[in-house]
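USER: Please consider what follows.
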Amino acid sequence: MAQPEDGPTLEQYVETRLNLLTEALKTSQVATDLRYQQRFEAQSEALTAAFSSQQTAMKTAFDVAEKAVNAALAAADRAVSKAELASDKRFEGVNEFRATLADQQRTLIPRAEVVVMHNAIADKVNELVKRMDVIHAERAGLRGGWGYAVGVVGFLLALGSLLMIGIRFVKGG
Protein backbone atom coordinates (compact mmCIF):
# COMPACT_ATOMS: atom_id res chain seq x y z
CA MET A 1 0.00 0.00 0.00
CA ALA A 2 1.19 3.20 -0.89
CA GLN A 3 1.00 5.99 1.45
CA PRO A 4 0.62 9.44 0.29
CA GLU A 5 3.25 11.62 1.74
CA ASP A 6 1.27 14.61 1.98
CA GLY A 7 -0.55 13.92 5.19
CA PRO A 8 -0.92 11.63 8.05
CA THR A 9 -2.08 8.12 7.79
CA LEU A 10 -5.62 7.16 8.55
CA GLU A 11 -4.56 5.54 11.75
CA GLN A 12 -2.67 8.63 12.83
CA TYR A 13 -5.57 10.77 11.77
CA VAL A 14 -8.07 8.71 13.76
CA GLU A 15 -5.71 8.51 16.69
CA THR A 16 -5.14 12.25 16.66
CA ARG A 17 -8.82 12.88 16.36
CA LEU A 18 -9.52 10.46 19.14
CA ASN A 19 -6.92 12.14 21.33
CA LEU A 20 -8.36 15.53 20.47
CA LEU A 21 -11.86 14.34 21.25
CA THR A 22 -10.69 12.73 24.49
CA GLU A 23 -8.96 15.95 25.45
CA ALA A 24 -11.99 17.95 24.45
CA LEU A 25 -14.11 15.64 26.53
CA LYS A 26 -11.75 15.96 29.45
CA THR A 27 -11.72 19.75 29.11
CA SER A 28 -15.45 19.76 28.72
CA GLN A 29 -15.78 17.47 31.74
CA VAL A 30 -13.47 19.69 33.79
CA ALA A 31 -15.43 22.77 32.68
CA THR A 32 -18.72 21.02 33.50
CA ASP A 33 -17.35 19.85 36.82
CA LEU A 34 -16.15 23.39 37.48
CA ARG A 35 -19.57 24.79 36.62
CA TYR A 36 -21.30 22.22 38.78
CA GLN A 37 -18.85 22.96 41.56
CA GLN A 38 -19.54 26.69 41.19
CA ARG A 39 -23.29 26.10 41.11
CA PHE A 40 -23.02 23.85 44.14
CA GLU A 41 -20.97 26.43 46.03
CA ALA A 42 -23.34 29.24 44.99
CA GLN A 43 -26.37 27.23 46.08
CA SER A 44 -24.63 26.22 49.28
CA GLU A 45 -23.83 29.87 50.02
CA ALA A 46 -27.43 30.84 49.17
CA LEU A 47 -28.79 28.09 51.43
CA THR A 48 -26.37 29.07 54.20
CA ALA A 49 -27.42 32.73 53.84
CA ALA A 50 -31.12 31.77 53.78
CA PHE A 51 -30.66 29.47 56.76
CA SER A 52 -28.75 32.17 58.60
CA SER A 53 -31.41 34.81 57.85
CA GLN A 54 -34.15 32.38 58.80
CA GLN A 55 -32.34 31.58 62.06
CA THR A 56 -32.05 35.30 62.75
CA ALA A 57 -35.74 35.79 61.96
CA MET A 58 -36.72 32.85 64.16
CA LYS A 59 -34.52 34.11 67.00
CA THR A 60 -36.09 37.55 66.68
CA ALA A 61 -39.58 36.01 66.59
CA PHE A 62 -38.81 33.87 69.64
CA ASP A 63 -37.42 36.90 71.48
CA VAL A 64 -40.53 38.91 70.64
CA ALA A 65 -42.76 35.99 71.64
CA GLU A 66 -40.82 35.58 74.88
CA LYS A 67 -41.25 39.29 75.65
CA ALA A 68 -44.97 39.05 74.85
CA VAL A 69 -45.37 36.00 77.06
CA ASN A 70 -43.46 37.71 79.90
CA ALA A 71 -45.62 40.83 79.50
CA ALA A 72 -48.78 38.68 79.51
CA LEU A 73 -47.60 36.83 82.61
CA ALA A 74 -46.81 40.10 84.36
CA ALA A 75 -50.25 41.46 83.41
CA ALA A 76 -51.88 38.25 84.62
CA ASP A 77 -49.97 38.49 87.91
CA ARG A 78 -51.12 42.09 88.34
CA ALA A 79 -54.70 41.09 87.52
CA VAL A 80 -54.57 38.24 90.02
CA SER A 81 -53.15 40.58 92.67
CA LYS A 82 -55.91 43.12 92.02
CA ALA A 83 -58.56 40.42 92.11
CA GLU A 84 -57.19 39.08 95.40
CA LEU A 85 -57.14 42.59 96.86
CA ALA A 86 -60.72 43.23 95.74
CA SER A 87 -61.79 39.87 97.11
CA ASP A 88 -60.09 40.60 100.44
CA LYS A 89 -61.85 43.97 100.65
CA ARG A 90 -65.19 42.37 99.83
CA PHE A 91 -64.66 39.68 102.44
CA GLU A 92 -63.68 42.34 104.98
CA GLY A 93 -67.04 44.01 104.35
CA VAL A 94 -68.83 40.69 104.64
CA ASN A 95 -66.96 39.91 107.88
CA GLU A 96 -67.87 43.33 109.28
CA PHE A 97 -71.50 42.68 108.35
CA ARG A 98 -71.37 39.28 110.04
CA ALA A 99 -69.81 40.84 113.15
CA THR A 100 -72.57 43.46 113.20
CA LEU A 101 -75.22 40.76 112.95
CA ALA A 102 -73.54 38.78 115.73
CA ASP A 103 -73.46 41.93 117.93
CA GLN A 104 -77.12 42.56 117.21
CA GLN A 105 -77.98 39.00 118.07
CA ARG A 106 -76.14 39.29 121.38
CA THR A 107 -77.39 42.75 122.35
CA LEU A 108 -80.94 42.99 120.97
CA ILE A 109 -83.87 41.61 122.96
CA PRO A 110 -85.88 38.82 121.32
CA ARG A 111 -89.32 39.80 120.05
CA ALA A 112 -91.20 37.45 122.39
CA GLU A 113 -89.44 38.96 125.40
CA VAL A 114 -90.30 42.48 124.22
CA VAL A 115 -93.96 41.50 123.76
CA VAL A 116 -94.08 40.12 127.33
CA MET A 117 -92.43 43.27 128.70
CA HIS A 118 -94.77 45.49 126.66
CA ASN A 119 -97.84 43.65 127.92
CA ALA A 120 -96.60 43.92 131.52
CA ILE A 121 -95.98 47.65 131.13
CA ALA A 122 -99.39 48.10 129.45
CA ASP A 123 -101.07 46.30 132.36
CA LYS A 124 -99.24 48.53 134.87
CA VAL A 125 -100.20 51.66 132.92
CA ASN A 126 -103.85 50.53 132.82
CA GLU A 127 -103.74 49.90 136.58
CA LEU A 128 -102.21 53.34 137.17
CA VAL A 129 -104.89 54.94 134.96
CA LYS A 130 -107.60 53.25 137.06
CA ARG A 131 -105.93 54.45 140.27
CA MET A 132 -105.67 57.96 138.88
CA ASP A 133 -109.35 57.86 137.96
CA VAL A 134 -110.18 56.81 141.55
CA ILE A 135 -107.94 59.57 142.99
CA HIS A 136 -109.50 62.18 140.68
CA ALA A 137 -112.98 61.02 141.69
CA GLU A 138 -112.07 61.24 145.39
CA ARG A 139 -110.60 64.72 144.93
CA ALA A 140 -113.61 65.82 142.99
CA GLY A 141 -115.76 64.46 145.83
CA LEU A 142 -113.64 66.24 148.44
CA ARG A 143 -113.81 69.49 146.52
CA GLY A 144 -117.53 69.11 146.20
CA GLY A 145 -117.73 68.21 149.92
CA TRP A 146 -115.61 71.20 150.89
CA GLY A 147 -117.76 73.41 148.73
CA TYR A 148 -120.88 72.12 150.44
CA ALA A 149 -119.18 72.40 153.82
CA VAL A 150 -118.12 75.99 153.13
CA GLY A 151 -121.62 76.74 151.82
CA VAL A 152 -123.25 75.23 154.92
CA VAL A 153 -120.84 77.10 157.23
CA GLY A 154 -121.48 80.31 155.28
CA PHE A 155 -125.21 79.70 155.47
CA LEU A 156 -124.99 79.02 159.21
CA LEU A 157 -122.90 82.15 159.77
CA ALA A 158 -125.36 84.22 157.75
CA LEU A 159 -128.25 82.70 159.68
CA GLY A 160 -126.39 83.30 162.96
CA SER A 161 -125.75 86.91 161.96
CA LEU A 162 -129.38 87.45 161.15
CA LEU A 163 -130.35 85.92 164.40
CA MET A 164 -127.97 88.16 166.26
CA ILE A 165 -129.25 91.20 164.47
CA GLY A 166 -132.78 90.08 165.18
CA ILE A 167 -132.02 89.51 168.87
CA ARG A 168 -130.35 92.92 169.18
CA PHE A 169 -133.15 94.53 167.38
CA VAL A 170 -135.67 92.88 169.62
CA LYS A 171 -133.71 93.75 172.75
CA GLY A 172 -132.64 97.14 172.14
CA GLY A 173 -134.53 98.35 169.71
About this structure: Residues 10-108 form one domain. The mean pLDDT is 87.
